[in-house]
Amino acid sequence: MVQPKRVLITGGNTGIGLEAARQLVQSGHHVAIACRDAKRAEAAVESLRPLAAGTGATVEWLPLDLASLGSVRACAAEYLKRHPRLDVLLCNAGLMPGAAVGGPVRRTGDGQEEALQVNHLGHFLLVHLLLPALLPPTGAGAVATAASADGGPAPAPAPARVVVVSSELHRKAGAEARVALPGGSRGAVALGSAAWLELLGAGGAGEEGEGKEGKAGDKAGEGEGPLDRYPMTGLQLYCVSKLYNALFARRLAALLLPAVTACAVTPGWVPGTSLGRGAGWLARTVYQYIFPLLPMTVSVAEGGRRVVAACVGEQAGAAAARGGYFARGALAEASPEARDDALAAAVWAASEAAAGIAPGGYLPSGVEAGAKAEGVTAEAGAGAEAAAREEGAGGLNAKAGGG
């Protein structure tokens, strides 16, 4: 018999998110979908409720616009108001940016580049805010045990999971892939760098709880950052965000084990979803209607199955898989950059700054970093964060050179 879990899915009203919700509800799990489109959310909930009949599952939705850090905070607060516990957080929502080299950076009202905020930073903040529901009730990784029917201690519940949807395209954001920055003599930066949140953002998040209540798509001129023009294509930017997803899962698992597990998963190449909504009309048409005919693509149903396996499957809960990367339904080796603990620490530090979280303030008070993260925190953390700052706007000429 399946032990019902409480699952929150971002972007659960369409595409892979909706398919994952469908499969989870059919298995008896309680599903909450978080998305920005109320009409689509209500339609998704209505389509899922008949599947819950007889399984005991429940379905609900919460408003969430990942392009607004204020909306992320409101969503987390609403979830905690409704439920004290969260067993699985599926960070699924994503955007394929339509950026063009030399075009103005598309920033949110928080001052961050839109695709990096929707795909990575919004989820980074959401997990932080939902840690009270993800962590065991007693905190600090300990789980209180109750008496079982025979008088012995009851088995401890399985740790909560955070599943971050990444992509095989994260491999394209490697150290060897470099993009020249606008301005001629400003050098070049590797796609596999922690500097992109700072370079493309205007740094408008402020202190935690004081983020701007802006909307996606605010004009670039409303808060100038180190770069006001895209130095890369939308596809390259997407690859960077997917690398950040994999690094986030790796670092999160290291910090929170054994209280919470985390992993990254790619559903495969699944055309026909709303992922390309940020692209032009021609690219959207090709993505939605032509690409699904190609033999290397994966159906929405299969993509959903792979994601669900990462959420509730036994393999993804095994010790060897924690912080790992799943591809084609099995544990796989991510790119060297996605396995770089120093880079993970640097991206983490940059994300804290961009989300308005105090340095080292991601974990709740009383929760100590897991043993796997201690060495990284002590050795790689400070050095990687300094390297990220050096590679940012202030040190690009010295660091990047002309490579």
UniProtKB/TrEMBL annotation:
Domain of life: Eukaryota
Pfam families with a match to the protein in the record: adh_short (PF00106)
Record's keyword annotation contains Kinase: no
Annotated Basic and acidic residues bias: 209-222
Protein name stated in the entry: Protochlorophyllide reductase
Region feature Disordered, mapped onto this chain: 205-225
Keyword Flavoprotein (UniProt): no
Any one GO molecular-function label of the UniProt entry: oxidoreductase activity
Keyword annotations of the record: Oxidoreductase
Membrane-traversing stretches: none
InterPro entries xrefs: NAD(P)-bd_dom_sf, SDR_fam
